[in-house]
Amino acid sequence: MATQNSPIGVFDSGIGGLTVVRALKKALPTESLIYLGDTARLPYGSKSAATVTRYSSQIADFLVGRQVKYLVVACNTASAYALPHLRQSLQIPLMGVVEPGAALAVASSPKKKIGVLGTRGTINSQAYREAILRLNPEVDVFSQACPLLVPLAEEGWLDTAISADIVQHYLDLLKASCGEIDALVLGCTHYPVLKDLISLRATMTFGHQIHVIDSADAVADAVAKDLELQSLEYPPGLTAGADHFLFTDDSRFNEIGKLFLGRNLSNAEHVDL
Amino acid sequence: MATQNSPIGVFDSGIGGLTVVRALKKALPTESLIYLGDTARLPYGSKSAATVTRYSSQIADFLVGRQVKYLVVACNTASAYALPHLRQSLQIPLMGVVEPGAALAVASSPKKKIGVLGTRGTINSQAYREAILRLNPEVDVFSQACPLLVPLAEEGWLDTAISADIVQHYLDLLKASCGEIDALVLGCTHYPVLKDLISLRATMTFGHQIHVIDSADAVADAVAKDLELQSLEYPPGLTAGADHFLFTDDSRFNEIGKLFLGRNLSNAEHVDL
Fold first, then answer.
1. How far are the Cα atoms of A101, A207, B112, B114 from residue A140, in angstroms, in the given order?
2. Which of A68, A237, B144, B229 is least enclosed by beta carbons within 10 angstroms?
3. Cβ separation of A251 and B151 shorter than 8 Å?
4. Residues of chain A contacting B252 with CB distance shorter than 8 Å
5. What ipTM goes with this model?
6. What digits encode the pLDDT tens for the residues B73-131?
7. Entry pTM
8. What topology is assigned to B99-215 in CATH?
9. Which residue, A252, A255, A242, A250, is CA-closest to A270?
10. A146 is catalytic
């Protein structure tokens, strides 16, 4: 049975969700986390709703078995496809990345014209569009699937001419479809490592400053508020246990993980699902 | 119990292995095939030997349960990592893609200098290097991992400026490590759809014609010889049943599959593993 003292569970298809872990540790330094990256079956972004929902349920059940008190779905594709199913089937509160990101985007777009970049799955699901329109039906939402950005980020090609060309290609497609935006959502947890490049190219493409929204900070704030609301914060004065990082495939997570987490991974373990 | 009349099983991590199906249908038009593409868990090329071997064993057991008489491992990463284990555990004959490709490369390299392009997994396994050196210990083998070529091929970006830049980047790295080659193995079943671009750029990079080796044809010839040797050919005068295409995730296999198979997929079904 999970209590206030229990850890927060966080999962992603791979290592991109470590950008959310980084923001959570900043907002909630006394909480301990269990992170699960499904590196054996990544990526989720190109796969169907049925497959992503099945994998997400397996992982959620696994983390509930590890007594987490709260679940953060730190993968945009899993948030887009699996959240309703997880909300119904789990006994603990949970938070996805789409709604906090959508709220921050609406607050950052005086012109009410928002662009969304994401995987094919996240874009096809229309989850950002729907979340934004629930908050403000007057906003125009323009979406662009960017399938090559995840492999670019995983290769660590953050500041190469090829990366710039690929980012520019997707921004040109976005501009052709919308003409104008003033806020741009990074709708995939891999994209924050490309944020500087995307910001620069978006400003060049649209001819003025674009608010680039990284959902990670928005999610961390939303989780902090929700823990307080539900009286699930870690008890003051106590020292939380160490964080744990679990991966379903061992290949390269230390090497790439550092890029996303901003420090070396400790307590990394392999698990089979 | 499989007989001469039974189908040949073929598997790959996704849809790349359809290039091998295409070659098999040309070499063995009377045989029927069951193809399984593990699209729910693709790609294999960035994952560890343990994970790839576990997934390959599951698929092989599934296909043996469907009474296949012969198994073709149409994925370079699975051939590189899992073949010894499958040889030990299965009761039916099988063929990977590495050894036929290595043999064709040795036969195509009068200068005894061979380049190999592949996924990170295939290159790290050194499977091509070892297979080539077993055939001729005097050959120099130079390998280059090309992680972005699979996503490029899956996106169908076959003839764009970005694809040309990425291919050129990897060929420049290869040239810097070796100086000279006269044959270049496409060590991944996704790469044949990029063959024209790779051939053109390799010729420009090395300043003379390079024999670009697509393992698919070599595998089909090797399977045809092996079936004859083991008296497993489909009985003459009979009509084989229809081919079947099974996928573990439904997303986009019809759309992308056509690119790799050269025709529309018929009899495509979803299976869970």
1. 16, 19, 61, 54
2. A237
3. no
4. 46, 120
5. 0.88
6. 999 999 999 999 999 999 999 999 999 999 999 999 999 999 999 999 999 999 999 99
7. 0.92
8. Rossmann fold (3.40.50)
9. A250
10. no
